[in-house]
């Protein structure tokens, strides 16, 4: 006899746990299957993001930045300190406490919303049946549901030339667990993860070399912003080498030598530790039986429509399993959308207004189209760019690097994109998200009153700058 639910969610990450909670709120009998065992040996919800991704990395980024500030940034404020030391064990302990607090909070939310947490693995079978294998057991149970939501997430991509090796050659998960600062650290991949993890250990004293196969830095970011980011990060000490294609690696004792080719030919570097951060792939193996009926694309992502329906009626897939950016907040919104669609409502995620963030210092954040994309379309557009150096609040805080940029449709005056590198970019970019979600014109932002002094004034000035109306920067009119 099989257990019957209204909704079964496979995966307990941001997409999965949010889907389960929202379904339960809407009155559905809901179960969530999650297999993760945390480093303390206990079952844990929260997926990659809370356990070994977004949250622990931000904890380390914040701790390492405070150390860097105490060591190098306080004198300008007239604050003198003695010799600054870093206690890696305490830094890691704090990170783990933050993770446990948040993952434990999800378990409490499940209990409050009467979500059944099934600790183990789930596989979708034909006819919306789910095979459940409890952790530590070989016996399986067959569960039935009216609706199934697939939310198994993603895992780091490994590359054949550089196999992982103990704590010497690690992926993003291993990079969060270093018990000491490596003297020389290699990072393969200059994407979001590589730059964030490289920044953590560079601030703490490591010599960091980042090897990136493509020739352009942050190719998905607006060119003006990515050039500024490259300049700032290099100034901070990250040795970023573009067009460096890794061809092999060799471990000898406690060292790893990486071979790569670039425009000058064959090269090699030897490191004390090496991080492989070349992207993530969806967890679709062992998730679907051959007769489940769910279609995959050529990259093993699950095919879904705009409301995350798969080819099987009543089966949905969300988050890193499907098209679009692999972002926790995207998964969270898809989770709510699917729950409400199941409930009979017509809800839609606006995929054009999802912001992306790189949590370096300064942060890099963007939403909508880049200037490169709009220019390539041939449509008439205008831009407004204002540096934080023109902002009183940024100067007072000694955080004046970077800029805010708007890309605007010249005919309709609609905001097409917003791009920020600078202090609190992750927060400021949300103003662009709100503007785009409400179909605002750039004039709407120009007419708003922004507090003075505030970092948000740079958003206002950038909006004004699109029509050569900025007050605090000198502008030359663009030639037609």
Instruction: Please describe the biggest sheet, giving its number of strands, its sense, and whether it closes into a barrel.
Output: 5 strands, mixed, barrel
N- to C-terminal separation?
73 Å
Count, helices: 13
CATH superfamily of the largest domain: FAD/NAD(P)-binding domain
Q: Determine the structural class based on helices, strands and strand pairing.
A: alpha/beta
Coarse morphology: globular
What name does the CATH topology of the largest domain carry? Answer: FAD/NAD(P)-binding domain
What does the average pLDDT come to? 97
Beta-strand portion reads: 25-35%
The level-1 CATH class of the largest domain: Alpha Beta
Looking at this protein, list some descriptive labels.
480 residues, alpha/beta, FAD/NAD(P)-binding domain, Enolase-like, domain 1, 3 domains, 5-stranded parallel sheet, 13 helices, 31% helix, 25% strand
Structure in words:
- With 480 residues, the protein is an alpha/beta fold.
- It has 3 domains: 3-156 and 281-349, FAD/NAD(P)-binding domain (3-Layer(bba) Sandwich), CATH 3.50.50; 169-278, FAD/NAD(P)-binding domain (3-Layer(bba) Sandwich), CATH 3.50.50; 353-465, Enolase-like, domain 1 (2-Layer Sandwich), CATH 3.30.390.
- It contains 13 helices and 21 strands.
- It has helices at 14-25, 47-52, 54-73, 88-113, 172-175, 192-203, 223-235, 328-342, 371-377, 392-396, 425-437, 442-447, 457-465, and strands spanning 3-10, 30-34, 116-124, 129-134, 141-150, 154-156, 169-170, 184-188, 207-211, 239-241, 245-252, 255-262, 265-271, 273-276, 280-282, 315-317, 356-358, 363-368, 381-387, 403-409, 415-422.
- The strands form 5 sheets. It has a 5-stranded mixed beta barrel with strand order 1-2-3-4-5. A 5-stranded parallel β-sheet has the order 7-14-8-9-10. A 5-stranded antiparallel β-sheet has the order 17-18-21-20-19, sandwiched between helices.
- Helix 1 links the parallel strand 1 (3-10) and strand 2 (30-34).
- Helix 1 runs parallel beside helix 4 and helix 3 (54-73) runs parallel beside helix 6 (192-203).
- The longest helix is centred in the first third of the chain and has 26 residues, at 88-113.
- The N and C termini lie far apart (73 Å).
- The model has no long low-confidence stretch (mean pLDDT 97).
